[in-house]
Amino acid sequence: MLTPRYDDDAAELGAAVAEMAGCALETIQAMGWQPSELLPQPAKAAKPSPGPRVFAAAPLEAAAAAQRSKATGAGTISAREAKVACLATAYAAKAPAEWMAHVSEARKAGLEDEHISSLARGATPAFDGGSREAAVYLVAAEMISRMGRVAEETYTAGVAAVGEKGMQELVAVVGAAMAAALTTNTFEVAASFPAGVNPKAPWESDRIYVPLTPQTESMKKMERAASTIFY
Fold first, then answer.
1. Per-residue pLDDT tens for 29-62?
2. Which helix (H) or strand (E) holds 82?
3. Does residue 2 lie in a domain region?
């Protein structure tokens, strides 16, 4: 195809331009190009990145605290037993704020580091067989993992250990602990973490447990005695 000069016949120029346009259109159709790939497009506004979920931090913290305050048992379930269930719930929900809140309360309630270490790994604590704590943990663990579908054997053991009233309290404890975990996880409610503690998985810091040897136990007793005498 020869393109005429502008100063040549206008009809020939028009025919040549039409032929070129036809060739270009055939090429576009054959390649499957879209108009957006051929024509300049207006710049798209960047989507704003979501900020931290702090739009209602204070009310949410208060709501989580209120839910957490109900996870204490009502007398039949002891504070120590309730915290066993709460730590199992916090770990299962991977709720950092709830773990930090409950682990300190668990230690105040007398729960040993040996058992906390197991709960921090999602393992079954080495409670004495047939004890109330062992039954509380097994019932709570099945409630959490099976959405309340507790096996008959587990339920029977739970009733034998804490009674029907205790089982009702345990349901309330786990339910309140899970509600608090859902609140703090969904709205990313902040919590205070000691230096060196992973804020996304604070239970990792509680997994290490070093059993006391007779020698270290004796040293602990001496330290306690000395603190009583000199302070």
1. 777 767 666 666 676 666 665 555 554 567 888 8
2. helix 79-93
3. no
